[in-house]
Request: fold
Amino acid sequence: MYYSLTNAAKEPKMQKFTDVFAETIPFLCKTAIAFCSRLIGGIAYCFADEPTDWHNDSSLSEQIQQEARAKAKAQWREETASIKRI
Reply:
């Protein structure tokens, strides 16, 4: 069948709108997903580029762990000594 421009003009306006809407929605969704992924990737790249203190300062972490172990060991000795007295 051959459709002329006059047949297209007779098509209801709502049908034209839904046809255009159905054709543009997938493109708009893909564009929005691409934009959001690039935005999230860019933000992640900016924050990953800067080193933080807690990654590089292992001596401070070790010192805190040693102090915590010493406190736990002292508490254990006190509890064990009090149990032995009973």
In short: The radius of gyration is 35 Å.
